[in-house]
Design goal:
It is built from three helices and five strands, in the order ααβββαββ. The protein is α+β, with helices and mostly antiparallel strands. It has a single domain, classed as 2-Layer Sandwich (HIT family, subunit A). A five-stranded antiparallel beta sheet has the order 1-2-3-5-4, with helices on one face. The radius of gyration is 14 Å and the shape is globular. The protein starts with a helix and ends in a 9-residue tail after the last strand. It catalyses: adenosine 5'-phosphoramidate + H2O = NH4(+) + AMP.
């Protein structure tokens, strides 16, 4: 099992409202290479990149999982920010968006996040 899958298997959704690493990045108590920020979201480089370009887009308001998103949530905004940041990062030839959900989806941090990966030809199937 890869270290990422082991982290996902051990992760617990909603551990008593404890702050996640992403909420600590938003609060600036954990450093991150921030690429974009507005009042709704934050985009920053992944600390363990899986492609030459690998960044995350997260909502500032914590939403644990994509499967628990309500109609009021701003998923469209997150997708637009992902696309614009990908363009700014030089991913004109394409990129992949990934959202992991739950244990079997290899979600290791229970704060919704979009992975944007590019900068090389990605394989298929992905997992």
């Amino acid at each position: 099992t890869s270290p990422g899958l082991a982290c996902a298997a051990a992760a617990a959704p909603g551990a008593g409202g404890a702050p996640t690493v992403f909420s600590r990045i938003i609060a600036r108590s954990v450093p991150a290479a921030i690429l974009y920020e507005d009042d709704k979201c934050l985009a920053f480089r992944d600390v363990a990149p899986q492609a030459p370009v690998h960044f995350l887009v997260i909502p500032k308001r914590p939403i644990p999982r994509i499967s628990r998103v309500g109609p009021q949530d701003l998923l469209g905004h997150l997708l637009v920010v992902a696309a614009r940041t990908a363009q700014a990062e030089g991913l004109a030839d394409g990129y992949r968006l990934v959202i992991n959900d739950g244990k079997h989806g290899a979600q290791s941090v229970y704060h919704l996040h979009l992975h944007v990966l590019g900068g090389r030809q990605l394989g298929w199937p992905p997992g």
